[in-house]
Amino acid sequence: MNKTEYQKAWLFVIPVFILVAFNAAVPLMTVVNYSFQETFGNNVFTWEGTRWFKQILQSDRFHAALGRQFLFTGIILFIQIPLGIFIALTMPKEGIGVSVCLVLMSMPLLIPWNVVGAMWNIFALPEIGFLGHTLNDLGFDYNFTQQTGDAWFTTVLMDVWHWTSLVVLLSYAGLRSIQPAYYQAAEIDGASRWAVFRYIELPKMKKVLTIAILLRFMDSFMIYTEPFVLTGGGPGNATAFLSIDLVKMALGQFDLGPAAAMSLIYFFIVLLVCWVFYNLMMRNEEQS
Amino acid sequence: MSKITLSDLSHSYLDKQNSDSDWALRDINLDWQDGGAYALLGPSGCGKTTLLNIISGLLNPTKGKVLFDDKDVTTQSPVERNIAQIFQFPVIYDTMTVYANLAFPLKNRGMTDAEIDRRVKEIADMLELTKTLNNRASGLTADGKQKISLGRGLVRSNVNVIMFDEPLTVIDPHLKWVLRSKLKELHQKINRTMIYVTHDQTEALTFADQVVVMHEGQIVQTGTPVELFEKPKHTFVGHFIGSPGMNILPCQIKNGYAAIDGVEISTNTQIKKSNFSKTEIGIRPEFVSFDKKGIPAKILKVSNTGRHKIIDTQCNSGKIKVLSHSSKEIPSGSVFLSFNKKYTYAYGDSWIIE
């Protein structure tokens, strides 16, 4: 099919363009500005070139935060995606159960992030929190404010609680769009439950799962509020993910230059991973 | 391969049934011979897909039995019944190759690789899919995909019946003809019982030896295409089959004779009963002609379809369509219509009186 050229159409894009300029491009340029300069306040800047970028890329602190970040995102994706699919598969397909499940599933998504952090903080406190107290009663030495493993366990659990629903809802939508004839054909072909999942449900869910993985990757990679409220990045730096570390550097130490360079590197990593992942999935699509 | 019998079959999708309209199927009785080609014909919502799903075992009937070779299979699953079904739109396994798609039903039944390979190649050859065997199935065109779903039914050598649920719905018009001839050819080659569900009379009449016409959950007539055309047992069959459909006119019945607008009409069958709440005369447009005497009517419209002329006329009791050869001269204004006795039938409460 031939596309018709209609240059005036660009005019209609202008409002969006202006909006994006103000809420994204302009603030981003300020960051770019900071990342190449040194400032001591009073609007006095000195040019530093790529010094901050080199410093960040070579710093052990950044490497450690990045490592923690990838580990965290990896763990939660590894849990949330299969768990979400599994829950979606077991959800009822008709009747009153559908609405009940959907409402229950949406609940965690509706809670503000800092509230989630505060809730889990109290819930997990070793002395008074229900989770913390129960675990200690059961004989586990559990204290998320002191022990690295416990802090990670609690953060991961909180994120799974908060966000698995998103994967469930997307997967459920994908599953519901499969025509009954596919299941009927599989039944006639004598397919096992696993084969139905592997050859019908999973391929049909591919698009929504791509979206789910992308969203969960981005959100978890940029996670800030919940761990900030829950552990504050501690104990020590054990749960200081990239964004927490970044805020410490920018607002705690007031190292604006390095912090700006770090934001940009951070931003490019997110962009790069999303781009690679999306293209891999879509290239696969085109081949078929 | 087997004979299929449906006895006193009724089905409802509701838990409680208060009136006839709560039933999707009512009192179905059928006998289908082994190796025949049958069509289930009816408009959307008449219950034909429900009936098909009951035969295949995807649905359990509310009442009645399904028998394969006189063996009760009513509670058996589709796998146990060993049937094949082809759906309205092509159902394929997207991520598999064409070969894997065809092999899938055999693999699930635990056949050896060598046997699978032999069967798949044979069927691919029959359906002209050999060249695309190693392609991803999702890359094929709609008719290619539908061939795959057909092939998955055919690879199993011992299926009892192959069922088609409006299989040409998504196929381009010019390919419909090709695929339909292919099906007919396949039927002759493999000699398996085939049931073809459709709302398209051309598809049904060209495919099947026996056509079952369904209307509001009931079977109104079973017969060869010629029987359905020449002697519709129900006014619905007259309407539904033929283009344009049968003329149905209200009539009076007195002393064994029918009359329209006071003009006596001789019918093919003798009228022995007259205690109906509604009596009608049915005559196909093909068998109505202009005459010097008969039913007085006015010509409303003449449309030329190329081969035929369809003439819309109006008499006191209603509209009558007349079909005549396009080369024939058509009188204008007021005319008299006469009916060919051999193809004129009287209907009481929509059913033929004989």
Task: Describe this structure in a few short sentences.
The complex is a heterodimer of chains A (288) and B (354). Chain A is mainly alpha-helical and 288 residues long.
Work out the number of β strands of chain B. 22
First-last Cα distance of chain B: 37 Å
- List the domain count of chain A as a whole number: 1
Q: Assign the structural class of chain B, choosing from mainly alpha, mainly beta, alpha/beta, alpha+beta, or little secondary structure.
A: alpha+beta
CATH uppermost class of the largest domain in chain B? Alpha Beta
The secondary-structure element order of chain A is HEEHHHHHHHHHHH
Please tell me the overall pLDDT of chain A: 88
* Rounded average pLDDT of chain B: 86
Q: What is the architecture of chain A at the second tier of CATH?
A: Orthogonal Bundle
Q: Which chains have the largest interface?
A: A-B, 18 and 27 residues
Oligomer class: heterodimer
The DSSP helix count of chain B reads 9
Helix content of chain B: 10-25%
CATH classification class of chain A: Mainly Alpha
Radius of gyration of chain A: 23 Å
Full CATH superfamily name of the largest domain in chain B: P-loop containing nucleotide triphosphate hydrolases
Biggest sheet of chain B: strands side by side, in what order? 6-7-8-3-9-10
In CATH terms, the superfamily of chain A is: MetI-like
